[in-house]
Write a structure and sequence with these properties.
heterodimer, A: 256 residues, alpha/beta, Rossmann fold, nine-stranded mixed β-sheet, 6 helices, 24% strand, B: 976 residues, alpha+beta, Mth169, Chain: A, Phosphoribosyl-aminoimidazole Synthetase, Chain A, domain 2, seven-stranded mixed β-sheet, 30 helices
Amino acid sequence: MLSPRVVVLRAPGTNCDRETLHAFERAGAIGRRVHVRALARRPALLDDVQIVCIPGGFSYGDDIASGRIFALEVRTRLGDALRRFRDRGGLVLGICNGFQVLLQTGLLLADPDGRPLATLAHNASGRFVDRWVRLRLDPGPCRFLHGVAAEFDLPVAHGEGRFVTRSPAELDRLANAGQLVLRYTADDHGVTTNPNGSAADVAGVCDETGRVFGMMPHPERFVDATQHPAWTGRLDPAATGAGLALFAAAVRAVSA
Amino acid sequence: MLWEVEVEGGDPAADHAARALVAAADGLGIPGIDSARTATGWLIETDLPRADVERIARQLLTDPIVERCTVRAVDGGEGTAPAGLPTVVRVLPRPGVTDPAGDSARAAILLLGSPVTAVRSTRIVRLPAVDAAAARRLAWKTIASEAIHDVVVGPLALETLAGGRTWRFASAEIVLEGRTEAALEALSRERCLALSVAELAAIRDHYRSLGRAPLEIELETIAQTWSEHCCHKTLTAGYDHSGPDGVRRYDNLLKETVFAATRRIREALGARDWCVSVFRDNSGVVRFDGDHDICVKVETHNHPSAIEPYGGAATGLGGVIRDVLGTGLGARPIANLDVFCVGPPDTPPSDLPAGVIPPRRLLSGVVAGVRDYGNRMGIPTIAGAVAFDPGYVGNPLVFCGTVGIMPRGTATQAAVEAGDLVVVAGGRTGRDGIHGATFSSVELSSASESQSGGAVQIGHAINEKILADFVLEAAAERLFHAITDCGAGGLSSAVGEMGATLGADVDLERVPLKYAGLSATEVWISEAQERMVLAVPPAAWERLAAVAADEGVEATVIGRFTGSGRLVLRWEGQVAGELDCHFLHEGRPRLRLESRTGAAAAAPLVWSPGAVDLGIGGCLPLLLAAPDVASKEWIIRQYDHEVQGGSVVKPLLGPGEGPADGTVIRGVLGRERGIVIGIGLRHRLGDLDPYRMAAGSIVEAVANAIAVGADPARLALLDNFCWGDCRRPEPLGALVEACRACHDVALALEAPFVSGKDSLNNVFAWTSPDGTRRERSIPHTLLITALGQVEDVRRVVTPDFKHAGDRIALVGTSGDDLAGSQLAAAGLVAGGTAPAVDAPACRRVFEAVARAIRAGLVAACHDCADGGVAVAVAEMAIGGGLGAEIDLAAVDWSGAADHGPALDLAVAFAESPGRFVVAVPASAAEAFAAALGAIGMAWIGTVTAAPEVTFRSRTGAPAVTIPLDHLDRAWRTRSE
């Protein structure tokens, strides 16, 4: 089987595109970074691609709100192409800003009219935070989490990551459907690592098919043990980081 | 028609800004403000009907789940105010001030297919019934900045967002002939030229030989080019210096000290020279691996930050990022650092002169500025420091630095060729930042806020991000011969510098403007941000334009490099000014200065009686909580320090999240070679002994890098001199002494300086309440940045203790070095002499520690700086979540003073330079001692599992044990 092909989509202000591509390549994929304008001109660029990733960053400076303008651009210029891509079995990953974009485009957690069922609001602290969190997963249908460790650490870096659903009932529905696949959990001292006040400690959600997945933490920032804040003297420096497993799971899912 | 959209969060409990306003009102003594609401406002100018504006508001401007919006016509009354909050306050960007959110919103609305003329973003605050003056005062003291905002209380009386009418060509002569010295001085001051009488006289004589008077645009160009900011005239001046070692003459101080050390080091290295391009380009470039070079630059943005902390710091960072982008044929920025020097956070308002922003608010502002710009650019902010001193009230220092990486062989720009196009790329030009270069060269005063508002720029990080993406793509395709950033002096400096020998013809009306109305002179000297100038061969233009279009960057041909040796400025074909390049770049009269330093004052060391009573148990928590030492977590966590994925040693690390020394990133993802940043700043010694201050700063920066495992043979240094009043021989003498130290220590460590920058005349002038005019200079401050390299990031070492049972060594020489220490800053000891630096001995220590780390013998290593051995051990314990037992009697103490009962304190807290606390696995102890050879080293204790730190006395006093969580709490006490 040929290596899976990945497109890492970028817009003005996207800034995690290089390391995200690096992570996919480390997991065995072949990829390229593509500007949203170039893809809008040539949607056929997706034809031989199995995974599309919208990486982290501050698309359009987070002006108005995180991901708002990028989502508008995707909705108006690429919406059909991405929906077709998903419907023919492609995987879509949104990390941090990319998660914010996915929710606002209606590609993830939308009602039948395409209106978002959930949002990522300002952190409860009111401020941007870069720190490490502990995550617990419940992979359900999510193709990015099969075979990934049940608990692992990743960094977050965002100001708007507080997961809020349109109603409490909506949260229950998503939980029952097994779509709340990634949650913040307690550290070694039993202290919660939820960095933003997310409802039900939600860090990542997938759609019903498990092929569209959005998450606030940055798996591409933990592909080597040396990226962990307490690795020196404690982790094998030649080991890989837990984040790499998510990219590997996606590559396996489309190679199967 | 003008519409207002007000977007408010649905949950008042999440309105942090409102709570902050209520608290601030209480602090300011403004009565009656017990609740508030804040909202984002959008002013939209369009011919669309209400229904369309409402659709835009719903679809684009509001999050349907957590926000709600109101749409109203601006002249249509205020609608119903929320209950109990009848006072409405709006904070608007002043006309012409960059408004990134407004620009983005306009672009997005156009994407929705709706035609709009203009969009401005505002803040809307709703308050209880208070009078307008109180509401206005609250806004000015909290969320509004006089330099960039208007505050409107009550209904908005605004019909249009448009401003400015097209400028009609005119040119004005400035007559210099016949002016007295006093009149020339007055002219320089009134026009904010920062030219001396001698310089104006040289200009007058030059124009006399041409038989005409200079035009305004010509005089402005000369003022920018000759500014301290652009040509470092004080540091490159000739000096007659009387120092402690007698009289010495320099023809060019910088060349004969800092540059000379680098030259000698490179000569000695011969074929092994690893410097690539130093003191020439926008940043210093050194060799990294087989395929890459790395570069580094640190800049200051002090005066703009004093007036508008957020914008000043953000654009300071933006500027230094462009320096790296504009190095060689373009380098990719991969790390930022920032250092702030501010007044003590608890300075009482009564000690603040009028017009001074309180230190706490200033620090919050500069941190937010760096955060928003650095994070949006996607460049990790990996290193920094904050120093607090009353000398920085009124004139804070804001240092921003950037590290870049570039392919080997692209560090040197190709020569600009006659016929190359002058291309300006990036943001549009407005009136922002007019006179930044000359403003940074004059002193600040309490009136600066109103006088120099135009000198403050507002950053637009996303414009810079797309500019960077464009530049790096164009560089990869080799589409230009040369590039430089449009920083201080704007186009006048950038084009002037690139065309210094060839000359250029520029059509100023072609420069894209943010709004109409700029004169030719304003276009030429504007310091509008996020612009770069490229020299593009005509054959490459078409492709360059296509790359720019792909990235969404505006690139415009504004002229041509000619080969005439003249800079010709045109406006719609008419000559607006014409300068001889030779005179512009070589015509400045050389400065010859007199400088003087006496012997350093030698006051005897005196212990405060309270110090011994406090003992180590009282002093250590006090010093851990001192502003300079205490955790900067509240700052660090606001910065994205991990973006780009190269992070190896973070600023907070270990299971206890303790402090780092040097920080480390990978140069290239997937490869093991790393880049190390160390920072040295011994500002407390600046006024005691400038030579030792400089030497101590260098040693501290290098020790930071060595402690993580940097290669001592690959350390590059940067200097940032920030001095006060440079009009008198004494401060100039201190400057000369600091330069001498840079020369001597760099040479001894074989660590070349590769770049630097100075900011002089950091003087704050004000009138005290009794009517007397007063001035205060900052302490002599030299920031040293060390750019180090590690061969294999998998072998780096961090300060956090790793295992109970590891033995603790103190490496280096310990003596009576308490002057300028943290203990002295806390008022517990006074007097003494500034620590002397034995640079050759430090070098031997650095090499020995590096050897031991390379050999894998070191579990944890921390350099001993602020707070001495005791603070170093406490920080290692905090990071590792482990305890320690330290025997002060085991310290190899060479102090000579009689400390009496305070001896334990002296040994615990002295800040002798060039020392390390090292934790070594017991099994490796022998090998470690052997690796150190003849280097002074003592085993002073053991790492323990018990979470407490114990100090045994060397005077027979009882041992002192402090619980780890007590130390941890003390270190984390400080927050914003």
